[in-house]
Amino acid sequence: MFTRNGKSITIKGVKPVCPFVQDFKNTYLFGAFSPITGSSLLLDMPYCNTECFEIFLNELSKQQPGEYKILFLDNGAFHKATRLVIPNNIALCFLPPYSPELNPAEKIWAFLKRKITNKAFNKLEDLQKFMDNIIQKYLDTNTIKSITRTDTYGKAINKTFI
Prior knowledge:
This protein is of the alpha+beta class. The protein has helices at 50-62, 104-115, 124-138, 141-148, 151-161, and strands spanning 28-33, 40-45, 69-73, 90-94.
């Protein structure tokens, strides 16, 4: 179902062999991660569109509803659709184009992609189960904080709140 090829160590001159499946079924993982608390929300969605994004925002809004959330996003069309209804306790902040390094969530996506490198899945459901296991096993609050926080950001937070 899915193959993500990555680097492998082999003897010089030997081409690495990894499983490969060429099939084009998709699933989309929507996520939000707090570098401060380590809290998160991940939803596996069938499409990457405005309707699914709105469902994600509504679910995020329900988590600690008294908390005001600021989401840093790329400039995806579905993030900016005019028909998108944004909950009152969420603000969308758009990053400059071509700057994924500014979004802490991109570090989580890279972490998850490394976990599925050089693996092949026969069915979409197998990939989804594998991802669920990876998320349950590795993405606790401390791991999320350690992946998403930067030294500069951490120092700024410590000076502000201590």
